[in-house]
Design a protein that fits this description.
The complex is a heterodimer of chains A (686) and B (150). Chain A is α+β, with helices and mostly antiparallel strands and 686 residues long. Helices cover 60% and strands 12% of the residues of chain A. The C terminus of chain A is likely disordered. Chain B has 150 residues and is of the alpha+beta class. Chain B has a five-stranded mixed beta barrel with strand order 2-4-5-7-6. The chains are: A alpha+beta (686), B alpha+beta (150).
Amino acid sequence: MDVFGSFALLLAFVCAVYAFVGGIAAIRTRHPLLVKSARQAGLATCGLIFLATGSLVYLFFSDSYWVAYVVAHSNRDLSTFYKVAALWSGQEGSLLFWSFLLAIYVFSALFAYRNKNGELMPYVGVVLAGVQIFFLTLNNFVASPFKVLATTGANGTLDIFTRADGSGLNPLLQYPEMVIHPPNLYSGYTGFTIPFAFALGALLARYPGEKWIHLTRKWTMIAWCFQTMGILLGAHWAYAVLGWGGYWGWDPVENASLLPWLTGTAFLHSVMMQEKRGMMKVWNVWLVFCTFMLCILGTLLTRSGVVSSVHAFAQSSIGNWFVGFLALILVVCFTAYVKNRDYLKSENQLDSMVSRESSFLFNNLILLVSCIAVLSGTLFPVFSEWFSGSRISVGAPFFNKVNIPIGLLLLFLTGVGPLLAWRKTSTDSLKRNFGGPLVAALVAGVAALAVGLREFYSLVCLILCVFVASTISMEFFRGAKVIRARSGASLLASAVDLTMRNTRRYGGYIVHMGMVLIFVGLAGAAFNRDVQKEMQLGSTLQIGRYNLLLQSFDSKPEKNYTSERMIVEVMRDNKPLMMLYPERRFFQTNEQSGTMVAIYSTLRDDLYVVYAGQSPDNQLPVIHAYLNPLVKWIWLGGVIVVLGTIVTLLPNRRAVLAFSSAQEPVAARPLGQTLAPSPTLREGHD
Amino acid sequence: MQKRAKFGVGIGVIVVSLAFLAWLGYGESKTYYHTIAELQTLQGAARSHRLRVGGTVEPGSIRRLSGRVDFVLQGEGKLLPVSYVGSDPLPDTFVDKSQALVEGSLARNGSFVAEHVQAKCASKYEAAPTAGPTSRSGNTSSSSAQPSTM
C-alpha cells in the first residue's frame, strides 16, 4: 500500500503538471479539446490525491509499522478514532492532508463549472493546478509520508525493516477536538484557494464585470465558515486540554490562523461595495491575494517552527520551500495586476462620511490594521534579527493593547454599518434606526455601573453588545411585522419567513449576532480568578460561590495510558452540586503525561479544575482552580456564527420584496431540499 | 476635496492612536532571545532586559522545591542554572532531555529566574524512527516535534 500511495502521488504530480502546461496551451490556442483535456487532468490529479490519502489511512488502520510516518504517529493500542487524527499529526501527513482538502475543493469547482464560464475556467484551472503542483512537489520529493524503515544488509542491499509497534500519538493530540479542529482549519486555509484562483484568473482573462465575485461568494463563505470554526475549536482545545485556564495566548500558530480570517472577513464585506457601487476593485483583488498568501504563511508558520524556535530557519528545510512559493505568488500577482490594472478602474467615489460605503471602508481599514499588527508581532523575532541582529519577541500585552480597541470599534461598526444607507444617510433615518438601541445601550451601561462593573473595556464592550444586539433585533422585528401584517402568521414564523426570503441579508445579521455573543464572552476574561492549593483528603478550597471538597484519589490503568484522578465534590452556596474528576494521564508508549481538565460550565461562569501534580514538600495533590466568567458565550456565539453562515448559503425562498397576499406555509422546508445550491445568483443583500 | 480631507483625518486618527498603543505594548512586552553562550557575554543594560533562552534540560537536574523548581539548561556545551518561580504548573512535556524555552531575567549571580517555561519533547516522537535503523531514503525529515495545533 505504501508503494501504491507513493505512485498515486507521483502520478498526481504528473497530471497536475499536465493540467498546468496543457491549460496554458489551451488558453493560447483556444482549442476546445485541449481545454477539455487540461480540465480532465485537473480532475484526475484530485482523484489520485484521494487514492494516496486513502492508502495512508489504510496503512494506519492496518498497523503497518514499516512506514516511518505510521511508526512515528501511531501504536497498536491507539483507538480507531485517533488513528484517523494521526494522519495529520505530523509534517508529512498534514501536508498530504492539505493536498487532499485542496483536491476536494478543486474537484468540486472544476466539476461544477465544467460547462459554464468557458472564458474564465481555463485560467482558473491553471492557477489551481499551479497551487497543486507546489504541494505535490512537497508531498513527493520533500516530505513524503510513504517512506519506509530499512536496514542495510550485509551485501549493501536495503532491506525493509518492520517494527513491532509504533511510538504512539502525542498525548496532547489524543482529544476529540483534535480530530475535528485540524480538518476545519485546513479546510479554511485551502478553501481560500478557490476565490484566489477566480480572482487571479479573472484578472488574467480580463473577465468582464463582477461575475467572479458572484461566482466565488459561496466558496468564500464556506472557507470563512471553516476558518471560523477552526479557530474556535482550536481555542476550545487549548482551553480544555492545555490546562492553563485560557483559550487564546497569541501564540504564533494561533496568530497564523487568525491572519487570513481577518483579511477574509474584510474581503467578504468590501466585495459588497464592488457589487453595489463598482468601487474598491483593486482593493478587493489584493485582499483576496493577501488572504491566500496569509493562508500559505499560516501553513509555513505552523509547519516550519520559524518563529517559536530559538534558531531561525535551521529547524526544517520545508520553510524555504514555502518562502519561495510565497515570493512566487507575490511576483505572479503583482505582474498580473500591473499588466491588467486598467481593467480594475473604480466607477464611483465615496460620497459621505455617514454612509454604508464609509462604514465598509472603516471596517476594512481596522481589520487590516489588526492584521498588520498581529502579523508584525508574530514575525517580530524574524524581522528584528534581520535589522538589528538581536531576536526580540513581543508578548500578549502588545497584541491585546492594539486588538482590544480594534475589536470594540469593529463591534460598533457591526451595529451601525448595516443600517446606514448607501451614498448618504439622512439625520432622520439615523434617529429612527439608532434612537432605541442607543437608549437600551445607555440603560445597560448605567445598570452595569450600578452593580459595580468598573473595568473600562468590559464596560464599553457590554454597552456596545447591547447596542448591536438591539439594532439587529429591531431589523428582524420590523421586517417580521410587515410580513405578519400581510400573512397573519405569528411574529416568530414571520421572522423565519423574512430570513428565508433574503437569506444573505438576514443570515448576515445572524452571524453578527453570533459575534456579539463571542464579544460578551471575551469581555468576561477581565474578571478571571484562580486559586492554587495543596489538598488533603477532606479539605476544601473556595473560589467564588463554589466550594471544592477532595473526597478521594484513585489510579487506574486504561488501554493506552494510566489515569490518576482526583474525586472532587463541588458545592455551590454550600449545597452539593456535582462531582468533578480532574485527571492526569501517563502514556506508557512515549513516557508522556497529559492533563485532563474538569470543567463545570454555566452561562454565568466556568469552574475549571486542574490536577496540577503533587507538592514537592509533602507529596499532597495540588489543585489549581479557575473561575472564568462568561466563557460559554464564546462557544455559543461560534455555533450561531456557523448557523448564520449556513443560512446565507441557502437560496432565497422567493424574490426579495415580492410579497404575495396568499397564505404561505411558514414551516422551514426539509434541510436537504433547501441546501441545494441555487443555480441563479441573486442580488440578495438589501 | 473637503470630503477627502475628512476621511484622511478619520483614518489618520485611528491609525496613529493604534500605532501609539502598539508602541506601548511593545515596550511592555519585548523580550530578547539569546543562546546560553551569548548570555554569559552580555554587558550592562542588556543584562536587565526580559530574556528568552532555549536549551536542553540536563538529565537529573530537575529539583522540585517548595515555591520553585530548579533545573539546569544545556546548550552548545554551556550550562545555565534556572529557577522557575512562575505560578502555572510546568508543562507535561517538561522532563529530562526535553527542549525548553524559558522566559524571565538574569539574577545577579548569573543564574536565570524564569517566569514562563515552554517545553517540547524532541527525542520522543519524530526522532523515534531514525533512532532505529536508518530509513531507505536517508534520514526522515527532522521536523519540529512540537505538537501541531493545526
